[in-house]
Amino acid sequence: MGVGSMKIHFSLVFCVVLGIGAMSGASAQDEKNPAASITVLLMTTEIQVAADGSDTRVQHVEVRAGNDAGALQIGQIAIGFDSSTQDLSVLEAHTLKADGKTYPVDTSAMYEQTPPGQTTLIINGLRAKLIVFPQFAAGDTAIYTVKTITRHPNFTGQFTYQELFPRTQAFNEVRETITAPKSFPLYVESHDVEASKREAGANVVYSWHYSAPKQLSEVPVTFSPLDHIPRFFVSSFKDYSQLGQAYAALAEPKRLVTPKIKALADEIIAGTSDPKAQAQKLYEWVNSYIRYIGIELGTGSFVPRDVDTIIATGYGDCKDHDILLQSLLKARGIESQSILLNGGDSYSLTEVPTFATIDHVITFVPQFNLYLDSSAGLAPFGILPLQEYGKPMVVASSSAAQRTMPVLPPGIAKVTLKTVAAL
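and the corresponding structure tokens:
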């Protein structure tokens, strides 16, 4: 998708536990199931936010393996961070054996690498610090403390944070605090997590506590986990209009009519005088000739690349598709706007403004009241992928606003299901 997806910073421990939560199965298989045998005994997170939105966070984690499958899973832990905006250091790490003996992790057993699961279709600045715990076996506990410094936020003067707790993962004790100046107010949303707030001198301390020692063996998911699992969100944006304006401020300088853009637009619409027909030709060109590829590199997760670069390389993510199409339209005197929404299975936005459920950018052309998604390879002009209709969205412009996408027009899609059963 290319916008919010790579900037959702979960707790560092979720590099381990968030992924395995979906793997849990029946109790008869617990001895082979890593999720059923891993318990987060303790997780504490302390975040100090500065007035410019930068932050320093220290996280301590103690996670125990109940069997061999769990030991195999957490005997090495990958802690993710964005190398283009963050510095991560491991303050301490060791194995605590079941008999009480400890084995420190040598610095030579800490490696920086590309995060597991990354594909060649994703270009990003994400890295992972891999910690290999010595003498690790069933019944042992991996203990580590890491410090992450965010040198500059994605949006100057803004801060966002979110935490998710899968019900298929056991958490004995979780305590988190965020300390921020009183002059830098934060807006908080919590679901099934204890939350509190207090003043401390010139600062405000926001605290959360969570405990769920017994995990569920299986949770059927028919929609986004962001809509139903224990979670909390924090944001310095006061509303989605401010969030939309912040995104527009980053993207607008890229919406340029360069000589290459002007020449390309003239070439594409040659022989066509009707503005709507011109818009269709420009859309079809971007849709056909610019290959989709995820680009998530530091502030590149929110800032489109230069339009001339997008043309030269012939690929881009959703925000590149959007800004290139807007520049081509602008070359023909057709104004357009960026629309921020969820491109997956989430049909709601968080109450406090965050990018937790915003991971996609499309284009709106007010002159024709048309929404266009040129990164959707098979979508005809004026037709969106079905999952984009009817969702809440944010208009990203100087006059940003939170609105709702139109519902699916009658007659656009039909599904026929025929079932034949023989008993």
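(Above: one complete record from the training split.) Residues 4-34, 118-123 have pLDDT under 50 and may be disordered.
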